[in-house]
Specification:
This protein has 159 residues and is mainly alpha-helical. 75% of the residues lie in helices and 0% in strands. It has a domain of 58 residues. Helix 1 crosses helix 2, helix 1 packs parallel to helix 3 and helix 2 packs across helix 3.
């Protein structure tokens, strides 16, 4: 027996790995490996035929296998349990939708009621006219530190 180069051993091992992983049909092998593997198959037809025949026989067994059919009892149990779960999930989603809608409506109502009370004093202070007689007083007013207006209580503002 003559010693074989390492590249031939590596190529044969890779073809064996491809056949075991992807089956005996080189068309199902990754493109990156297919060209090198087909070159090895063409150079070593006897060894390749044995290797690919083993993979093809396993492919035939796997393709012929069918999953067993469920028994009548299993089918009835699954069908009888399904409607109960559907009804429970619908009830939960209806309750969640109702509570979520009520919370959104309450938040909108709170904003509608509170907004005029919070915004009115700030708008009045900002809308007050500022009169200046000369450019120096305008500049002096612009250079003074600004303080936010403090809202007056509603009862005192009306008196």
């Amino acid at each position: 027996m003559t010693p074989r180069p390492d590249s031939l051993v590596a190529a044969e091992a890779r073809v064996r790995q491809l056949a075991e992983s992807f089956g005996g049909d080189p068309a199902r092998w990754p493109e990156a490996d297919r060209l090198g593997a087909e070159a090895w198959i063409a150079a070593h037809p006897a060894e390749a035929r044995h290797l690919l025949d083993d993979a093809r026989s396993l492919d035939r067994l796997l393709f012929a296998w069918e999953a067993p059919r469920p028994t009548e009892g299993v089918t009835k149990r699954v069908q009888s349990a399904a409607p109960v779960q559907v009804r429970q999930s619908r009830r939960r989603s209806w309750v969640l939708t109702l509570t979520g809608g009520a919370a959104l409506a309450a938040a909108c109502l709170a904003g509608i009621v509170a907004a005029p009370r919070l915004v009115d004093p700030v708008v009045r202070a900002a809308a007050a006219p500022v009169y200046a007689s000369d450019p120096d007083s305008i500049l002096a007013e612009a250079m003074t530190p600004w303080e936010a207006p403090v809202a007056e209580p509603a009862m005192e503002a009306r008196s």
